[in-house]
Each structure stands twice: as C-alpha cells, then as structure tokens.
Design brief:
By secondary structure, the chain is of the alpha+beta class. The N and C termini lie far apart (44 Å). It has 10 helices and 13 strands. A hairpin with a 5-residue loop joins strand 12 and strand 13.
Length: 327
C-alpha cells in the first residue's frame, strides 16, 4: 500500500481517440470509407506522437508498404519511457461510419513492450468473448450449444435470455442456425467486432456473448479491453486459404492453439480508450454544434480495474488554436 500511484496512460489515450473521432465523425453517412479512415489515422497519429512514451505499433493499419501511417512497426511518441506496445483501430467499423450506421468507434490500446500478440499474416480469428460474470465458463473447443448452456448457468439465466453478437457473414450460417436452435437471441452486426466484444462486459448493452470469426487485429484489441474489464476472450487463428496457413506455419504459428486472454496480451499493465464516432449501445457518437462538439468515451486500465466514462465538450475557438487537426 506504500507504493506511489504511477501514471495512467489511458487518461492520455482518450485524447487520441477523441481526436480521431472528431475528425472522422464529419464523414458519417457520406459513403467515403477512405476519407473517413484517413481523417481518423491522421488525427490519431498526430496526437499519439505527443504522448510521453517510447511506443511501437504491433497492431496497426497494415505493413509499411500498404499503410503510410500507423503501420505495424512504426515508432510513436516522444521517445522516452515507458516502452510500450500499441494497438490501434482508428475506426472500428469503417463501413458503419460510411453508411451512417451504429457502433462505429475509435480505439487505442497499450501494454508493456513485448506483451501483445502479433498475428502475423493471419487476418482472421475464430473468437468467443464474454463479460466478467461468465469468465471461465466458455471453451472454444466445444460446441456453441454447450457454451450457451455454460454461460446461461454462470449468469443465472435461461438460454432464451442470452443475447449473442455474431458478424453477419455467410461463413456463420451454421453457427447462427445452431444458436437459433438452442433458443438464444442473436444480434447480427455487419461490422465492428471490437464494439461487439466490449458490449459483453458492459451490462447496459444487454449483450452476453460474442461468437464467430472476425479480424485478428480486432481480437488483440478486444483482449486488451476485456483484460481491463474483467471479461474473457478465447481465439484461434483462422487462415483464409492453404497459402496463408503455410506461411503462418513457416513463421512458427501453431494454428491448433487456443489463445487465451493472457496469450493475446501478456501483461496486467494494459491501457485502453475508445470514443464513439456514431451512436451505439456502448457509446454515443460525436455531436457537432456551432461552437464545438461533444464526445463520449470509455477509458480503462487493467492494473486498477477502473473503467471510466468520459463525456467531453470541445470548444472550437480554443481547440483550433492548439490543434493541427482540421476538425
């Protein structure tokens, strides 16, 4: 108890996600995925470089040749301690933003250097995620029906009371059919499975589980958030084809391994921030006014277990004197 409080980087990260959300929110419903993504990336990178840290991107926008900014391996920050891994998703739900749909977020996570799992060439993971009440009740190696029974028992519910988030993709037809047969409720989402994973640990969302194949970068980011929120995620790398599987094996990946929370982020010093871009069950989207804007964010840290909701009001006449971002 005599140890002094140390620095909570999550409180600095929220400036990063707020900047990305404020910039990207201008593109809501404009059907311009590239424009929205570029606005978020530019703003996020600019503010990340103001944070006093020695950061390196482990989960980014892609390799350097494909992504000119926020690429895997890029160094960010002021170049001073602490040394951290960074995972970014400037827009979780780019298509949601472009079409003006719900649950588009901007997210950033950090953890001690060398602690974040790098999925390499594997773009997708098969995942199952739950909140604190069902931690320890899921097993990716058993059937969806068995997991539904186990989670219902852990939460003191009937299966028909459970709500499961699943990405609406043809690859999930069998999964969806089995969940329906078991009697659970399904929330089909078109994109944004980081938001879906966070909802499982946020009681107000009404979501109990996330199941199915989604992005592997999003799986690592979700693991960082669930580490802070006391939830659980299990994942298994999901190659799209034989060539991707062969490349992964050549790089030493075990495609049969079930990756737990501690495999995806091997640290209890994890920081996470998310800001809503469009309205959703988890967060309100950006609201613009003649003299400024309002943002709604979640900020969390695994070491303390504290999860904060932050509502910020931004004043253009002040902010634009300090910022290089054209909000």
């Amino acid at each position: 108890m005599s140890e002094k409080p140390d620095r909570n980087l999550a409180l600095e990260l929220v400036r990063v996600t707020e900047a990305a959300a404020l910039a990207a929110g201008r593109y809501m419903g404009r059907n311009d995925k590239e424009g929205g993504d570029k606005a978020a990336v530019d703003a996020m990178r600019l503010v990340l470089n103001t944070v006093e840290m020695d950061g390196i991107i482990v989960i980014g926008e892609g390799e350097k040749d494909e992504a000119p900014m926020l690429f895997n391996g890029e160094k960010l920050g002021a170049g001073v301690p602490p040394q951290v891994d960074i995972a970014v998703d400037p827009i979780d739900g780019t298509r949601l933003l472009a079409l003006g749909r719900q649950n588009s977020l901007s997210t950033v996570a950090m953890a001690d250097r060398g602690s974040m799992f790098n999925p390499g060439p594997i773009v997708y993971m098969d995942k199952i995620a739950v909140g604190p009440g069902a931690k320890g009740a899921v097993d990716l190696e058993v059937s969806p029906t068995v997991n539904l029974r186990s989670v219902a028992r852990a939460l003191g519910k009937e299966i028909r009371d459970l709500t499961v988030v699943v990405l609406d993709r043809p690859r999930h037809d069998k999964l969806i059919a089995e969940i329906r047969k078991a009697g659970a409720r399904i929330r089909l989402i078109t994109d944004g499975d980081v938001a879906g994973a966070l909802m499982t640990a946020w009681p107000e969302s009404g979501v109990d589980m996330l199941m199915g194949v989604g992005g592997s970068p999003e799986g690592v980011i979700s693991a960082c958030a669930l580490m802070c929120m006391g939830g659980e995620i299990q994942a298994k790398l999901y190659p799209r084809n034989d060539d991707e599987a062969r490349r992964a094996r050549d790089m030493g990946f075990n495609l049969d391994q079930v990756l737990g929370l501690e495999d995806l982020v091997r640290s209890d010093n994890v920081f996470f921030a998310a800001t809503g871009i469009t309205d959703g069950e988890l967060l309100d989207g950006v609201k613009y006014y003649p003299d400024g804007a309002r943002t709604h964010s979640l900020v969390m840290r695994s070491k303390s277990g504290t999860v904060r909701e932050i509502v910020s009001r931004h004043r253009w006449n002040k902010l634009m004197q300090l910022s290089e971002v054209p909000y």
